[in-house]
Amino acid sequence: MHTSSHPTGDATAAATNPVAPHVREVIEQAVRQGVPGMVAQTRDGHRTCWSTAGVADVRTGRTRVPQERFRIGSVTKVFTAAVVLQLAAEHKLSLDNTVDRWLPGLLQGNGHDGSRITVRHLLRQTSGIFPYSIDPAMLERFFNPGFLTRRFDRMKPEQLVKIAVSHPAQFQPGESWAYSNTNYILAGMIAERADGRPFATQLVERITRPLRLTGTYMPGDEAELQGVHPRHYSKNTADGSLTAPVHDVTEQNAGHDSHAWTAGGMVSTAGDLDRFLTALLRGQFLPPQQQHEMFTTTEVPPQAWIDGATYGSGIFSMKLPNGRTVWGVAGMINGCYTFAMGDREGRRTIVTHLNGDWAPADWPSGIHLMTDVVAAELG
Fold first, then answer.
1. Topology, domain 3-378
2. What is the reported pTM?
3. pLDDT per residue as tens digits for the range 148-165
């Protein structure tokens, strides 16, 4: 097992120290139990620390480094929400607009009614729209061994919505909460209609360029990751099996015409995620009204997602074992897990990434492992 610590490479917060021993202990334990590699970047005020355990590449033994880029899965949702909220601030759309206002006729059937579901319902995951990602054919294609041959498949956003509405709606709009990637695919489509520019272009002009997020982007048609990056490893199993073979799935289609796009397709770095999360937590990015919208939360029903969580617009809170509440984002895509969490004031944060999509033996899921890393720093 390789363990090392490095400066962040960020001139504004140069780290000269490894993360705290209790954080290193968790990531090192996970690597001892068979995951390829983990990183943790912590920040307390202006002091940033960074450590790694395991490897970026199991074939070469290359270690992970602070500037590397990795897929962030559903952490993408907070970027999508931020773009939509900026459009609302510019009066290019309203959160009270219905889906039908922007995408007429697309969301109809099996209890789905685009004339009753608003943009706010989409961002808060309170629409009741069925999640296309748990459609049986989609599970077979993307979360089982079939992924090895289907990971370059192209799927239009409209196709994903069509898959969703082929199933019954989960509940009527606003009556409950359920995590659905379909909500954020629709939000991305609406952002493009409202602004008249591709989402990837808006992402650059609205977020990554102003905040100097130099390692963050939405992939286009390319399957490869840009720049320095770890390999991403998958067991291609939906049931969490620890005995399934491991495959390198670094190259995959996650851009505009994919199963991920504005619900989970982006790439970033630990430093960029800390910078963006901090700006959101401190209210330095969105105008006050839209900031209020982002942090107005709905309680997550028990066993529906992350226990004890409340969900805002792309961002969520969760209670750590010691009862402290932290805020941030979480994501999983084939080959990795990402968490970026902090206190509500944005004074202390932690970003952690695992370049494998299974949990080691001591943890029931990747979410539990990542929560333990967060709790080791912020709990």
1. Beta-lactamase (3.40.710)
2. 0.95
3. 999 999 999 999 999 999
